[in-house]
Amino acid sequence: MTTRIIGTGSCLPKKVLTNTEMETIVETSDEWIKSRTGIEQRHMAIQETTTSLAVEAAKRALEDAKTQAEEIDLIIVGSVSTDRHFPSTACEVQSAIGAVNATAFDINAACSGFLFGLGIANAYFASGTFRKALIIGAEVLSKMMNWEDRSTCVLFGDGAGAAVVEKSEEGIISMTQGSDGAKGGVLSCCNRPVNNPFVTNDTALDYTSMNGQEVYKFAVRTVPEAISKVLGDAGVSPDEVKYFVLHQANIRIIEAVSKRLGQSMEKFPTNLQKCGNISAASVPILLDEVNKAGMLNKGDKIVLAGFGAGLTWGAALVTW
Ligand code: ACO
Predict the structure, then answer these.
(1) Is 195 a catalytic residue?
(2) Whose CA is nearest to atom 33 of ligand 1?
(3) Which one-letter DSSP state was computed for residue 141?
(4) Nearest CA to ligand 1 atom 29
(5) Which is nearest to 54 in space by CA: 18, 20, 91, 22?
(6) Which one of the listed residues 19, 247, 271, 275 is annotated catalytic?
(7) pLDDT of residue 192
(8) Rounded to the nearest whole angstrom, what is the distance from the C-alpha of residue 151 to the centroid of ligand 1?
(9) Could you give the 3-state DSSP secondary structure of residue 5?
């Protein structure tokens, strides 16, 4: 018994913020952003919210999977930028799509959110609790940026991606997840501080802060290790993998992983050029693009991998 991906969907906000327009917001240049990261533009929520993007991505995934909302018995949303502390985005999606038979909750595993969600669904399926799930990554990261900090605001974007998965004989072959909370400080954003009749707190809202070089070192070490583990556990060589669908943080990270695995960059589809880094949504949005472009055939082996704040990481080897 395992978990099969049977449909994908995604949704990006209409507004596109190009690097050239970014030059009018902070002191930066198209050349700096492109050469350091590969990013050329990103989508920004104006009318959209984390929930509205998640709902639209979910509807598109259900359509692609030819599945009715009532058939879904589990909804997991990975997000670090939910609209509300409660109710969860997953419960809001459940209501909006009419998935009346689902149990719904959010998880925070940052950019690994989709991979962690897949792992939770897989465990639920194995235990016999549920059979068909919607796994969603949804973010409006633009609201969590300090728009005067050029070292972070140029990197991120908004959007949502979703997949319908079901209990099946074929699908996920092997997967791994991990965390290193001791290094959490390299990429963080504080919630509201303690505030009650006994504590006076007028701390200003916090925004995303990052030690880019530490995140870079973590990613280029951990991602190849995680991918090698899922391949090793399954006895599958990297040459047998058609595509490596990685979290879209930075083209230099992806190039380093491709080199470390001895695999050509042609096997690493990317969309960071037009989307930037959308944390938990990056992997499912890219997977949807690869799927909708007709690049996948039944039986193809692909690797999904995410990494990010926490620190967290996850990888899965999947038969399409
Ligand atoms: N435009 C112009 N100059 C800038 C910008 C910008 N947007 N941002 C920083 N700089 C300047 C800095 O001020 C610094 O100037 P100084 O030398 O005069 O002090 C100079 O550029 C170099 O800054 P660094 O931070 O050392 O730049 P670096 O080469 O490390 O690149 C980057 C920064 C792209 C973030 C890199 O560290 C990286 O790729 N890190 C990986 C982490 C990542 O991709 N994180 C994304 C989110 S994390 C995740 O999803 C897991």
Answers:
(1) no
(2) 212
(3) G
(4) 36
(5) 91
(6) 247
(7) 85
(8) 5
(9) strand
Q: In this predicted model, what pLDDT tens digit does every residue of 285-313 receive, in sequence order?
A: 999 999 999 999 999 999 999 999 999 99
Instruction: Verify whether ligand 1 is closer than 6 Å to residue 286 (CB atom).
Output: no
Mean pLDDT of the chain: 97
pTM (predicted TM-score): 0.96
Express each pLDDT in 218-273 by its tens digit.
Answer: 999 999 999 999 999 999 999 999 999 999 999 999 999 999 999 999 999 999 99
Does ligand 1 lie within 6 Å of residue 223's CB atom? no
Pocket probe for ligand 1: among 40, 216, 222, the residue whose CB has the most ligand atoms within 8 Å is 216
Token pair of 26 as six digits: 């902070």
Three-state SS string across 190-227, please?
CCCCCCECCECCCCCCCCCEECHHHHHHHHHHHHHHHH
- Cα gap 287→165, rounded to integer Å: 13
Q: pLDDT tier at 195 (50, 70, 90 boundaries)?
A: confident
Which segment of 33-42, 119-128, 199-208, 237-246 scores lowest on mean pLDDT?
Answer: 199-208
**pLDDT band at residue 44, thresholds of 50, 70 and 90?**
very high
pLDDT band at 203 (very low <50, low <70, confident <90, very high): confident
Kindly list the structural domains of the chain, giving each domain's residue range(s) and its CATH number in brackets, ordered by start.
Answer: 2-169 (3.40.47.10), 174-319 (3.40.47.10)
Q: How far is the CA of 190 from the centre of ligand 1 (A)?
A: 21
296 CB neighbour count, 10 Å cutoff: 18
- The b/e string for 260-293 (b: 16+ C-beta within 10 A; e otherwise) is bbebeeebbbbbbebbbbbbbbbbbbbbbbbbee
Pocket test for ligand 1, best of 148, 209, 246, 250 (most atoms within 8 A of CB): 250
